[in-house]
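In this section we turn from sequence analysis to structure. A common task in structural bioinformatics is to predict how a protein folds when a small molecule is present, because the ligand can shape the pocket around it. The inputs are simple: the amino acid sequence and a SMILES string for the ligand, here pyridoxal-5'-phosphate. Study the lines below before reading on.
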Amino acid sequence: MIIDNHPFEVNDKGHLVIGGADAVELAQKYGTPLYVYDVNIIRNNCKAFIETFDKMEVTAKVAYASKAFSSIAMLQIMKQENMCLDVVSEGELYTALQAEFPTEKIHLHGNNKSLNELRMAIENDIGCIVVDNFREIELIGRLLKEYNKQMDVLMRVTPGIESKTHQYIMTGNEDSKFGFNLNNGQAEEAFKLLWNHEFIKFKGLHCHIGSQIFETDRFLIATEVLFQELKNWKNTYGFIPEVLNLGGGYGIRYTSEESPISYDIYVKELVTEVKKHVQMLAIPMPEIWLEPGRAIAGNAGLTLYTVGAIKHIPGIRNYVSVDGGMTDNLRPALYQAKYEAVIANKASAPPISEVSIAGKCCESGDMLIWDLPLPKVDHGDILAVFSTGAYGYSMANHYNRFAKPAVVFVEDSQDKLVVKRESYQDIISHDLSYE
Ligand SMILES: *Cc1c(COP(=O)(O)O)cnc(C)c1O
């Protein structure tokens, strides 16, 4: 049996199966809460992007946005799948270096890159810095001169599409902390600083219009806006872009209400749109770069919890509390994100009623799922929440001094611990005495 809308199966014991492994046995072996990933799904998500570009014979770079889930093992898989990597901090860059990720395939992002971050990027000869503001142009220029190195640079721009010309409400809006504004001339001003720079090799534009997007239209409109600017720069300055980075944000299925587009369709439509503009401008095809995060890791992961207290309020609601919550999955508390779940040890039993899944933290807002249809729930049941592979572990925190859960990878029925569960000792490891 296959679980509706999620890429997992049920075995003849009625247990949920992930990557060929029995989820209930994984919970017994490693304890809960536990993040579990099906590595084949991660690999297939990478291939869906890369192979489509290959088939279309377009030179491309697909960079995994490592903020979605960064760990040594995850980045080793990205390396094996020929992905590039986006990092936004020294911590993410350090993790990539520890995973021996090829540095020329690492790209640095961020709206407030510090001198130390830039220094670390330049010292390690990463592939590209995506410059976000005027201060960075100055810092990068200064550092490159100091190191006497050259560096590829893209400029992040905010397309700032007006809703009166298009019915779409874009997140790449003018009022954004990210990137250079195209409409008020700041992008062009930045261009003049970057173009023909002694140390900066300016390659082209980057834009990331938002996250969990389900239509290709928005990406196509953003592409069109970028090309309007590129046309101007070509005519005025003779600039020919070598790279066009269209960011990430490809939507995934959290609940049955979402119907994501398959990744090859995004790639095909984007390539077609870029080709159209390239022909109109009569320039060579630039490299196309994409930066999926959620689309790579999200649906490959799930979280296992053990059910504890069950509170029945007659006529109002049934609260089912689990042994994790906003400390391992912040998204419901942060932005009312919705999830679906099954009881892993009763995965083929039909639902009989709706319950609400509560976390353990001392906050009423620590609710993982409201009104979830489930079979009869008992203490000790294992709850499996789907699509927690992105922005789950990476947003995990120590509120209430809960230890961060372990992460297990499963591939072809073989399970492997890839992040250890934190201990109590880990939790106080930075505390110093005041006695
Ligand atoms: C967050 C982010 C991404 C990845 O977004 P997803 O929704 O996870 O695909 C890509 N590029 C940039 C610049 C980002 O900030």
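The pocket of pyridoxal-5'-phosphate is lined by residues 65, 67-68, 86, 109, 208, 211, 247-250, 291-295, 390 (CB under 6 Å). As an exercise, try to locate the residues that line the pyridoxal-5'-phosphate site and compare them with your own expectations.
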